[in-house]
Amino acid sequence: MWRWVRQQLGFDPPHQSDTRTIYIANRFPQNGLYTPQKFIDNRIISSKYTVWNFVPKNLFEQFRRVANFYFLIIFLVQLMIDTPTSPITSGLPLFFVITVTAIKQGYEDWLRHNSDNEVNGAPVYVVRSGGLVKTRSKNIRVGDIVRIAKDEIFPADLVLLSSDRLDGSCHVTTASLDGETNLKTHVAVPETAVLQTVANLDTLVAVIECQQPEADLYRFMGRMIITQQMEEIVRPLGPESLLLRGARLKNTKEIFGVAVYTGMETKMALNYKSKSQKRSAVEKSMNTFLIIYLIILISEAIISTILKYTWQAEEKWDEPWYNQKTEHQRNSSKILRFISDFLAFLVLYNFIIPISLYVTVEMQKFLGSFFIGWDLDLYHEESDQKAQVNTSDLNEELGQVEYVFTDKTGTLTENEMQFRECSIHGMKYQEINGRLVPEGPTPDSSEGNLSYLSSLSHVNSLSHLTSSSSFRTSPENDTELIKEHDLFFKAVSLCHTVQISSVQTDGIGDGPWQSSLAPSQLEYYASSPDEKALVEAAARIGIVFVGNTEETMEVKILGKLERYKLLHVLEFDSDRRRMSVIVQAPSGERFLFAKGAESSILPKCIGGEIEKTRIHVDEFALKGLRTLCVAYRQFTSKEYEVIDRRLFEARTALQQREEKLADVFHYIEKDLILLGATAVEDRLQDKVRETIEALRMAGIKVWVLTGDKHETAVSVSLSCGHFHRTMNILELTNQKSDSECAEQLRQLARRITEDHVIQHGLVVDGTSLSLALREHEKLFMEVCRNCSAVLCCRMAPLQKAKVIRLIKISPEKPITLAVGDGANDVSMIQEAHVGIGIMGKEGRQAARNSDYAIARFKFLSKLLFVHGHFYYIRIATLVQYFFYKNVCFITPQFLYQFYCLFSQQTLYDSVYLTLYNICFTSLPILIYSLLEQHIDPHILQNKPTLYRDISKNRLLSIKTFLYWTILGFSHAFIFFFGSYFLIGKDASLLGNGQMFGNWTFGTLVFTVMVITVTVKMALETHFWTWINHLVTWGSIIFYFVFSLFYGGILWPFLGSQNMYFVFIQLLSSGSAWFAIILMVVTCLFLDVMKKVFDRQLHPTSTEKAQMYSNTVALSDEFIALQPLSRARNQLSKLSLLKQIQVSSAWTPYAVSQKEKQRAHLLEECWNEL
C-alpha cells in the first residue's frame, strides 16, 4: 500500500522496461499469460498548478527565495515575542509581494489551463467495435486506431497503418514542431497499407514493439509483428513510419494510424521540458549584496543588544522608577532575555533587507522584455518576423557579453543556395544562364561534345547504364563522355530526400502524376537548401526529378521518363556526413549513389579522378562555395542479397539498432567510384561584416563554429570580416596524435609571443580540437585568449557546446553568447550564458530553444549595444538604489536607539514602516528601470566602444556598491542629526510655544528621507517623459496627501493613533519647512558636486557621449564649443534637430522617420568633432 502511494506521488516511479508492447486496436491475447502495461492517457498538461495544489505549491516556491523566507521568519518572531513593531509592518509587505507574484503566476497558469482544455477537447475519430466513434482527444488510448483527414493535426504519436494511396504513403508538415515547411513523406508497411477501410482494419491482428518515449523528434525504433494466416510477419518501423503529434496531414485525403505514445509521453510534450535555469551576473551580484546587508543587519542587532546590557549594568538604568520589572522578568534566564532582545532588534532593523526588490526586478524584466518585440529596427519585413523573447530573466546579460560564438550557414549567410560550379570526371564547369560552361581547356573534348555541356537538347535518347565497366574508366569518345555527365546528374537527381508538392496530388492515387508536368511547374521542397539547389540545377541541365512513391523515383530526361526502383535510403547523419540511396535501374542493375562532404566520400573511393576532384574542391572552397562530392557503386546480385539481409536485420533490431545500422552503412558505402563534386553558393546576409566589426570594436571576441570544410570556412571568414587580410592566421589542423597536437600548440604560443602583430587569428578543425581538449585544455585556452578571432571548422554539435563550456569555466569566467539557426546549434545555444536563435530556413529548433530569437544576424548589434546597454544600466541602478534607500530608511532607526537607552522604541509609525517600500518610493524606480535612456539609442549603436564602459559587470562592482552604501549612510546621518539639532534642544518651533514630541521628530526624519531618495532618483534620470514626471513628483505629493489624511482624522478601526495631528502640526512650522529644504539640499549637493568633478576630471566614454548628446539636443550653445569654420554647417542641422525633438514621442524605441533624421544629425555632429 505504501509503495503504491509513493508511486502515485511520483517519489517511487514504477519500473519500466526498455520497450513497450502495443496491441493494435487493443486486442489483447486471451490465453491469460499477458500482463497488460499501463500507459498514460492523451491529456496534454502544460499547466503548473491545479485548484487543489495552487496555494501550497506556489507558497513553497515563493518561500524558497531567501528574502521571502527571511521576512516570514521575522513575521513569525513578531508574533511569538514582544517586539517594538507590529507584525503588520513585516506581514503586510510580505503579503503584498506574495500576493502580486501569486496573481501573476496564477493568471499565466489559468491561460495555460484554457489552452490545454482547448487541445484536449478537440474532436477525433477512433475505430472501435468495427466502426468510427467520435470522441475527444483526451480519450485516445495507446493502441487505438485513429482516423485523420487532410489538413488535420495528429492528436498523438501514431504509427501509420494506411492512407488513401495504394502504397500507404502520406505527406506531412512539421512546421509547428521544428519550423520546417517542406513536405515529409511517411510510409506504412505493405501488409497494413492495403487496409484502407474501417472494416478491413477491424480484421488486423498485429503487435507493435517499440522503444519507450524519448524527446528526440527524429529517432524512433520499433517493429510490427503481423499475424496473417497463422504466420507472423515482422516489419521494421523507423522515423518514416511515425506521425508526430502536432504535425499536420497534407496532400492526402485521410490516413489511419495506431497511437503508440499519448499525452505527456508524445515527443512534442517531452520537448516541453524546461531548459536548465540560467542566472544572470546581476542576479548573482544581487544575492551577494543581500548577504552583505544581512551581515550588516545582524551586526547592528548584536551591537544594539550588547550596548543595551552595557547600559543596564548601572542599576539606575536597569530598573528605573518609571519602568519597574515584574517578578517574572526578574527571575527569567539572562540567556533567554539576551536572545529575545537580539530578535527584537533584528525585527526593528529588518527593513534594511528590501523585500520589494525581487518583485520590482521581476516586473522590470517582464515588462521590459516587451520593448524588444516592439522594436521596429528588429523587425524583418521580408519574412514578417519580429524579435522574440523566450526568457526575460537575461535581459541585462545582453549588456555583459564578452564572447560571441556563431554558426556560419544560415546565421552569417542567407542559407539560400545557388548552384554555381561542378567538377565532373576531373573537369570543371560553371553554370551560366542555365547552361554548363567549361572552365579552361579540355584537351579530351571537341566542340561537338562541349555542345552537350551547354545544352542537352540535341540528344534524343540516352542508353541505360548497362555495363559497369563503362563507368569505371575515362571516356574515350563522345558517347562515353555524355554517359559520364549523364550519370553524374542522375546521381544528383536521385540521391536526395526532396519532395514535390502540388494540389494535383489529391485524388490521383499512387500514379506518377508528376510525369505530365513541365519542369517549370514543379515545386521542390527539401529539408536542406543544398539538396533543393542541386535538384533544381539538374533540372535546368535537362535531367528532371519529377516525383517519387514509396518504391520508385521518376526522372525525366529530355521528355523520356525513366523509373528507378528505390530499394533503400541510407539516411544522412552527422557522424558519416553523407547520405546514400540504393536504386534499381530500368535495366535491372542495382546502384548505390552517395553524396557528402569530401572528407567522408573521397577516402571511400577507389576509382575516378580523385586527385583532380580534390584540387577542384579546394578551389571551390577558396571561393567560399559549399562543396559536396558525388560517387556511385554497382552491386552484383549476390552483393545486394547480403546487403539487403544485413539492412533488414539491423533495422528490425530493438537493441543497439543505431550501432548496427552504422556498421552496415560502413560496409555498404565503400569501394566507390568518384563521379565529381558540386559547389553551391550561400551568400552573406546583409551587414554581416559591419556587425562583426562593431562587435570587435565593443571589445567582444567573435568565434565562428561551423561544420564546413577548412577552405570554405576560411574564405567566408575573410569575406565577412571575421578575419582581416592583415591578420596573422595561425592553424591547428590535421593533427594525428596528442604529442603532435601539443607540440603544435607550443609553437603557436611562441609565435604569438614573438610576432609583433597586433591581431592573430586561429583556425582549428574538429579532429585537432578533440585532441586539444582531451589533454591540453590550458595550453589551447592560452593560445585562444591571445587571438582576436577564432574559427573552428568541421565541428560536431557537441563539440560546439564543449568549446563554449571551456570558455565559460576559464579563470576569467566571461559571459558568452551563442548564435545559431539550426538543430545542430541547439546544444551550444543552451550551453552559452545567452542563446540567440536565428529564425532561418533550417527550422525553428534553434529559435525555440533560445533565450532570444531574431530574424537576421545584423540585429545582434542593436540587441546588444542598445537593448543590452539600457537593460544593464537600468537594473544595475535599480538594485543599488533599492539598497541605498533602505540604508537611508533604517540607519536613523539604529541611531535613535542611542538616545532611547536601546529600549527598542521605533522612530517611525508602523504605517510608514509598511508603506515606505510599497507606495512612497516604489514607482519612480520602476518607471526609471523601464524607460531610462541615458544616451540616444542611435549613438549607442553607432559607437560600439561605449559598450566597454559597462563590461565585466562594472556598475555592480564592489567599489560602486560601497559608494551607494556609504552614500546611504551619509544621507541617513544628515536626516537624523539635522532633525536632532533642529528640535533636540527643547526649543519651541510653534507659535503657541508647544513642543515637538518623538513622533514629530520621527515624522520629520521620514519626510526628509522620502523627498531626498525620490529627488535622488530624479537626478539619476536622463530620459524624462510625462510618466517619469507623474510618478516622481506624484510620489512626493501622494506622501503629503496621505499623511494629511492619515494624521488628520481619527480612524475608528485603529486601536491607537499616535500620529493624530502630528503631520499637520509639523507642516505648520516654518522652521520645519526650512529644515526639510536645507537637509534635502545638503544631502544631494555633495552627491551632485562629486558627479560634476568626476565628469570634468575623469569622464568615461559614456559620460562624454551624454554631455555631447545633451548639448546637441538641447542648446544652440553647442555652436560655441566648435571652431568657427564649422559653426555655420551646424546651425541648419541643429534647427532641424530641435523640430524633430519637439515632435518625438516618449516611447523608448520609436523608430519614426524623424527619429532616424535626428540620429543621422547626431552622428554627423559626432563625427565632425
TrEMBL record:
It is found in: Early endosome; Endoplasmic reticulum; Golgi apparatus, trans-Golgi network; Membrane. It is a multi-pass membrane protein. The active site is at residue 407. GO terms for molecular function: ATP binding; ATP hydrolysis activity; magnesium ion binding; phosphatidylserine floppase activity. The keyword Nucleotide-binding applies. Residues 847-1100 form the P-type ATPase C-terminal domain. Residues 123-238 form the P-type ATPase A domain. ATP binds at residues 407-409, 531, 572, 595, 626, 706-708, 794, 800, 824-825. The keyword Membrane applies. It comes from the Eukaryota. GO terms for biological process: phospholipid translocation. Pfam families: Cation_ATPase, E1-E2_ATPase, PhoLip_ATPase_C, PhoLip_ATPase_N. CDD domains: P-type_ATPase_APLT_Dnf-like. It catalyses: a 1,2-diacyl-sn-glycero-3-phosphoethanolamine(out) + ATP + H2O = a 1,2-diacyl-sn-glycero-3-phosphoethanolamine(in) + ADP + phosphate + H(+); a 1,2-diacyl-sn-glycero-3-phospho-L-serine(out) + ATP + H2O = a 1,2-diacyl-sn-glycero-3-phospho-L-serine(in) + ADP + phosphate + H(+); ATP + H2O + phospholipidSide 1 = ADP + phosphate + phospholipidSide 2. Its cofactor is Mg(2+). PANTHER family: PHOSPHOLIPID-TRANSPORTING ATPASE IF, PROBABLE PHOSPHOLIPID-TRANSPORTING ATPASE. Catalytic component of a P4-ATPase flippase complex which catalyzes the hydrolysis of ATP coupled to the transport of aminophospholipids, phosphatidylserines (PS) and phosphatidylethanolamines (PE), from the outer to the inner leaflet of intracellular membranes. May contribute to the maintenance of membrane lipid asymmetry in endosome compartment. This is Phospholipid-transporting ATPase. It comes from Oryctolagus cuniculus (Rabbit).
